[in-house]
């Protein structure tokens, strides 16, 4: 997927900057924006999104820093009353363009016989976080299907195959069959095997954060049955 970097300047409110930070649990783990707090500074500003990768805090790169070091930087920023965040956002295109598409589809002037249908058919899709909480005696209530064949670049191979009625996934109302899942608890699962993803969700305990890219208009009937 393509990425874009953006700078977000936030002024601290009484409740803080209004977002949570995920990741930084290991030396190579990226830092991500977690939940955006309703009515907080980040939500009012409107630019920050859950699952954005955090690159810099007030010009200081956070790559390789631990979760605690990142929180310390945010504490310093809170004392100053404002913060400048640099974040990197993945942009997913809904069209499944093959790698050998004719390059003229991307030229500035375009050739006269260029068919409109060759251009990306759908605008970039935004990722959002869904937080599920379960009781000790129940599951989260969703089934993830993983595509057996390698998908085209920018297409996520993992999607929701089933949402069990009455389960936490069903009650939250934000998960639909066909939605693509790009990360679990801030960790990208795009390149993980199905078994690794299942283990990751088991290890999450009673709360799991799924980063979802909604599949708009996909026919549910085309999904293979859960194996």
From TrEMBL:
Q: Where is this region: Disordered?
A: 96-116
- Name the principal localization, coarsely classed: membrane
Q: Does the keyword Membrane apply?
A: yes
Give residue ranges for domain PDZ.
7-89, 129-216
Give an example GO biological process. Answer: signal transduction
Which Pfam families does the UniProt entry name for this protein?
PDZ
- Compartments in which it is found: Cell membrane
Cross-referenced InterPro entries: PDZ (IPR001478), PDZ_sf (IPR036034)
Record key words, sorted? Cell membrane, Membrane
The record's listing under PANTHER family reads: MEMBRANE ASSOCIATED GUANYLATE KINASE-RELATED, MEMBRANE-ASSOCIATED GUANYLATE KINASE, WW AND PDZ DOMAIN-CONTAINING PROTEIN 3
* Name of the featured protein: PDZ domain-containing protein
Lineage of the organism: Eukaryota, Metazoa, Chordata, Craniata, Vertebrata
